[in-house]
Amino acid sequence: MKFLTGAVIVLSALLLISPLLLQATSGSGSYVVTPGSGIPSGVVAVNAPIVSFWQLPLWVQVAGALDGILIAFGLMNAAPLIIGKIQNVLDNSNRLSIFNYVKSNPGCTPSEISSRQNMKNGTVKYHVQMLESQGKIILKRMGKYTRLFNTSKANTEQEKMVLAYIKNETSRNLLCAILEEPGLTNQRLAERFGLDKSSIHWHMERFLNDRLVTVEQDGRFKKYYIEPGVGKLLNNGQVMF
User: Fold this and answer.
1) Cα dist. 137→8, 62, 99 in Å?
2) By the number of CB atoms within 10 A of the CB, which of 27, 57, 121, 207 ranks highest?
3) Average pLDDT by consecutive 10-residue portion of the chain (241 residues)?
């Protein structure tokens, strides 16, 4: 289909410029076709009679008719694309609901939207792709999840990371605890939330890798602190729990 459309465009262009390349004048029972940019010697163009379309040779008339048909065909093929671009991407009610949900819940996942908005996964996937293609939202892969953000809000990479983590209850609780009580250790965190030390260690390693926390070694204990930039985001309420 792309090849056919391309061929139509090329052929239409050639036929459109053909009148600029050729001029037709009538003589005694015949036609002289000359380059549009000049007149050959021996041919006087002054007072040459004007030739109507129906007086042109048959092949010229056929070419003109074909030109019109090809142009119409090309416009018919291009119309859906043009209309699609002009149409407001948010005219669809489901798409608007998804867009508004992403605005209110930055860092959400498609499966979360499907559950909260009572939509099928396939429906959400389709509308998310439409919103992304029109620049309304952006998708960011974080760990094993694809998270959605509103492009109208200039989230920094750090903001996006924090938003992604606080979607998980355990991660959110751990970050809040370290923010409230800087220097907490694995043991204290495990006791506070009733988790295994191995689970706490797994979460802390993720926080460290993504630069949300820093660690200080104190003997055999590791003390954790929130990164200044992350702490500022949380304290200023720039990300919501």
Assistant:
1) 35, 50, 8
2) 207
3) 51 48 45 50 54 70 73 62 60 93 87 93 94 90 83 71 82 91 93 93 91 90 91 64 43
